[in-house]
Amino acid sequence: MEPPAAKPTPIKTGKVRHVQEREFVSVSGTVTSPDDPVPVSFLVSGKVIEVGPREGDYVKKGQFLAAIDPVDYKLSLQAASAQAGQAKVALARSKDEYARMKFLYESRSLAQNDFEKYRAAWLSAKEQVDQAIANQKLAQKRLTDASLYAPADGFISKRSIEPGQTASSGNPVFEIVKLDPVEINVGVPETDIHLVRVGQTAAVTIPAMPTESFEGKVRVINVSADPNTRTYMTRILVPNPAHILRVGMVAEARIEGDRTIELMTLPAETILRDPQGATIVFVYYPEQQRVYAKRVERGAVYGREIAIQSGLSGDETIVFAGQEKLRDGTIVSLVDETAPGGPQNPLRKEEVRQ
Q1: What residues contact 76, with CB distance under 8 A and at least 6 apart?
Q2: Rg (CA), the chain
Q3: CB 150 within 8 A of CB 125
Q4: Which of 121, 154, 236, 289 has the smallest number of CB atoms closer than 10 Å to its CB?
Q5: Multidrug resistance protein MdtA-like barrel-sandwich hybrid domain spans which residues (predicted)?
Q6: Are 255 and 40 in contact (CB under 8 A)?
Q7: In the CATH hierarchy, which fold is given to the domain comprising 24-35+178-259?
Q8: What's the fold here for domain 40-67+149-177?
Q9: Cα–Cα–Cα angle for 216, 298, 235, nearest 5°?
């Protein structure tokens, strides 16, 4: 007696979906500042008596940052001002004396040698006034420099001074980083670099902020590949007026290409892996009422569908449901009409690299 025939496995089928989409490159990278951090240091030395913003605070250009005890610089300014005043008085006397001696000299009542002495004294007094005024201005500048102000808008990324400590001239006590705009530094694989040009639009998302999206422009493409990763460093400039993006965040970017290409897509659930790890789909052969596995190469994800890069001609009938129970040559039966070839909604593109 022959064994009973195997009961057909119920399945649903559908067709490959043919769509037209723009080429794109999907990459991940890190948020950075397009400018180096701005170091801020005192131009004079002394004991710090006040410090304003802390790390992470936003400051505007000209905002107060810190102050050194100004007492010594005030005293120096007072002394320089007094010396300038004395020099001006001495110049006035010397000028009057020179004017009288010049009159006597021109009336031939004074020898030339004596006249030259008065003239030299007057010129020396003028130089002393100029020097005293320069010293006064320098003292005023040093007093002004005892207070430190932000040279640019940005965030305090580093603060290395506290009240009571001594600040040295030229040693940075703050660092300011600009966050509008920011740059996304990504590595574009050598297989995709031909698709990327300066000026192209990039859609940027942050995994830590899944509800936010940003738009940027490709600003720089490195001409040399990293010898270790074989990727080309590419910088995407992204406006960040609300300062949501912060340096160090992980970012993902989709750089839109210029060409429109023909694609074949299938629902993600139709694609399986065989015991060897290869990606497969099950193709239905109606004349045999059987299905057979066919290896395919998957590409980009488009919403709930995945692009098929190779392995199919596009005319095959694919198993859309029930494929988990199938093997090569399984006898099957259709439980309903052929399912549509995927959703009709606009596709959202992401890259899946295998």
Answers
A1: 139, 142, 143
A2: 40
A3: no
A4: 289
A5: 42-177
A6: no
A7: Elongation Factor Tu (Ef-tu); domain 3 (2.40.30)
A8: OB fold (Dihydrolipoamide Acetyltransferase, E2P) (2.40.50)
A9: 20
